[in-house]
Amino acid sequence: MAKSKYDVIYKDLKRKIETDEFVYQELLPSENLLIQTYNCSRNTVRRAIGRLVADGYVQSLQGKGVRNIYRPIEQSAFTLGEIESFRESALRNGQIPKTKVLLFVEMSVDERLSNCCGFPLGSEIYYIQRLHYLDGIPLIINHNYFLKEFTHGLTKEIAEESIYEYLEQILHMTIVNSRRIMTVEKITEIDEKCLKLNAEDYNCMAVVSSFTYNSQGVMFEYTQSRHHPNYFRFHDNAVRTQTYNKKYV
Amino acid sequence: MAKSKYDVIYKDLKRKIETDEFVYQELLPSENLLIQTYNCSRNTVRRAIGRLVADGYVQSLQGKGVRNIYRPIEQSAFTLGEIESFRESALRNGQIPKTKVLLFVEMSVDERLSNCCGFPLGSEIYYIQRLHYLDGIPLIINHNYFLKEFTHGLTKEIAEESIYEYLEQILHMTIVNSRRIMTVEKITEIDEKCLKLNAEDYNCMAVVSSFTYNSQGVMFEYTQSRHHPNYFRFHDNAVRTQTYNKKYV
DNA sequence: TTTGAAAATTTGTTTAAACAAGTTTTTGTT
DNA sequence: AACAAAAACTTGTTTAAACAAATTTTCAAA
């Protein structure tokens, strides 16, 4: 697939950081050098670096340079700031994903559901319950609610593979962004049974609620992902915006 | 404080979105119009919009425009992608923060601590336990570990107010970025007592581990924030990077 | 009225240039 | 050798311009 120049540079720098081609705690080559290396303009190389900063791979220091502060993290972590299907995430980490469809029904939105997900009352939807395994261990129960209007033709078979692949490649839907809220909630009987949890041991779990939008600005998916507390791990990097005077060291 | 132009535009657009000056689901004024409004270049206005996209406030659609998809969220939520002290976050949400210092000691890093936080064995540190209240309710227990080398002169009194304010304004430290990991963990006796938790009710809690870096690339702070499960709420927005062919709505 | 091509409009990418601001190195003077 | 000023180098901000790509609008022909 044709890529943009800054994306190629971004990925190349990222790789060089991850493979220790750039030394930890050292400065990356200066913008001027990178411009020569990649034969591009300053803006383009700065755009790539900007993404590395957001990723927490480097920190950029006026007058000094760009310092590599990347440290490898443990596997199996879900990284924030990206929309990935379970399948994509697992494959990225070299793990073996398996998905079992517990429930696949068509229904319309009642008041309770409308309140928690925001779909209009009476909307026609697909409701899918899926259990996700990683390397044979049941880790996540997903409750997916898809607006039928935008996801025609979903089947149980598709749900066993990858729904996003179907939406993007077959229906040519453009998935734009996803708002997520993480909370801790009590486990239910379903959680207990499916994830082999023991309330004596863990009576809570991590819950990620996602609200996903297409290019029409419509929220077409609401998903509640209920994670085994022992395996849940979310990563994030925050950049401090200078509130006061900078200066020093 | 002197601000950059794009930051002024960003904040102004953000305000106009939050106050419904721009209609939900409608397109914002085109870049050309914004250029006239703010009397700036296209790059500058695009930089501001880029931040709104990252915030999940708008979605930007080639050939169409920039659509307002902002929905107000409940208060008391901690938003990812920013480094904020408890105090800053509370004040931003118009809540009354209170902090009680449970423990303030100077110590050196032992093997157990070195393993979980990454400080070199034997480093001199401040170890601070603080209980944070919001509107009178105890919500968070923080275990802060600061490298003494970079945070000289910390006192219990400062810890009762704002440590970050001290580091930035008095020591003129530049805090750059913070890596965070969210997990769910068993509650301890301290948690149970301080947060008035009941193991029958909740035997787990949300834990946010932060690794914070200064402008020298040194991780000078490790903090474990243990949140009351009932009040913990983390927000995030993810932008889908097109994996396949776009095309269509 | 419908269809389809052309034009206009919108966002996306890339280059170039200038100046500001912070840090490091060099240089010259004492 | 020590100090201070100057120069060089680094990232940060802003403007300008050109072209690409996607969508919407216009308009002419059927």
Tell me, what's the shape of chain A?
Answer: globular
Helices of chain A, by number, come to 8
Q: Quaternary state, please?
A: homodimer
What strand line-up does the widest sheet of chain A have?
4-5-6-9-8-7
Which pair of chains has the greatest number of interface residues, and how are they split between the two chains? A-B, 63 and 63 residues
CATH A-level architecture of the largest domain in chain A: 3-Layer(aba) Sandwich
**How many domains is the backbone of chain A divided into?**
2
Element pattern of chain A in H and E: HHHEEEHEHEEHHEHEEE
CATH class of the largest domain in chain A: Alpha Beta
CATH-level-4 superfamily name of the largest domain in chain A: Chorismate lyase-like
Reported for the largest beta sheet of chain A, the result is: 6 strands, antiparallel
Helix percentage range of chain A:
25-40%
Structural class call of chain A reads alpha+beta
Sheet-strand content of chain A, in percent, reads 25-35%
Determine Rg of chain A (CA atoms, Å). Answer: 22 Å
Indicate the mean pLDDT of chain A.
Answer: 87
CATH topology of the largest domain in chain A: Chorismate lyase
Distance between the termini of chain A: 43 Å
Number of strands of chain A: 10
